[in-house]
Specification:
Helix 3 crosses helix 4 and helix 6 packs across helix 7. The strands form 2 sheets. Strands 1, 2, 3, 4 and 5 form a 5-stranded antiparallel β-sheet that branches. The relative contact order is 0.15. This protein has 203 residues and is an alpha+beta fold. The chain is elongated. It contains 7 helices and 8 strands, in the order αββββαβαααβααββ.
Length: 203
């Protein structure tokens, strides 16, 4: 089992493991939906989660990934403020997740400086990632955004072979599938990638 972040003090680690429950989620599992009340905080031990924003028409855009040793800052903030979720969280890779009750997670903010530091560090990292998303949507062309996403997935899975579909990629960057397919074909012609059935290989 993956250890929780090393920055946690031994006492906090004991509290976390005694309070939380470890659950396994297969890829594709939805662990948090839009407008749901936050009852627990996830800490990823193995695998990964992708966090998406969805508009009123059901279109999605990828905000960031949650990887081992991390949590979802949007869930934490919504839980602390007793607000409903503004995001959708989906398991990207089969995941082992430590589920922490919101009540205890809030109490630890006053009791454990390490927990507070963990939250603030997450907030800073996610804020920077969200700025990158805004910058990409506003200023970058589709091919640059798509290639960046492919490299993200390659790094996440530690593989040049990425199991995905054109529709999934289109959903994650908020673009039309036809446009994504056209750009992917151009990238293949430029020998940047190789296209296969439900798979993309980075060259």
């Amino acid at each position: 089992m993956q250890e929780i972040p090393k920055l946690f003090h031994t006492l906090l680690s004991k509290e976390v493991y005694n309070t939380g429950k470890i659950k396994l989620f297969p890829a594709g599992s939805i662990i948090l939906n839009m407008h749901a009340y936050i009852k627990s905080i996830p800490i990823v031990l193995k695998g990964s989660i992708k966090v998406l924003q969805i508009d009123d028409e059901g279109r999605e855009i990828l905000l960031y990934y949650v990887t081992p040793g991390e949590s979802c800052i949007m869930s934490i903030l919504a839980g602390i403020n007793e607000n409903t979720s503004k995001i959708k969280a989906v398991v990207e890779d089969d995941a082992e997740i430590l589920i922490l009750p919101v009540k205890e997670a809030i109490a630890w903010i006053k009791e454990f400086p390490e927990w507070t530091a963990f939250i603030f560090n997450l907030y800073q990292k996610r804020f920077e990632e969200l700025l990158n998303v805004v910058n990409a949507v506003a200023f970058q062309k589709l091919d640059a955004r798509l290639l960046h996403l492919l490299h993200q997935k390659s790094s996440l899975h530690n593989s040049k072979e990425i199991a995905t579909t054109h529709q999934q990629l289109a959903n994650e960057i908020g673009a039309a599938r036809e446009a994504v397919s056209r750009v992917l074909k151009q990238m293949e012609n430029a020998k940047i990638i190789t296209l296969a059935r439900n798979k993309i290989i980075l060259m």
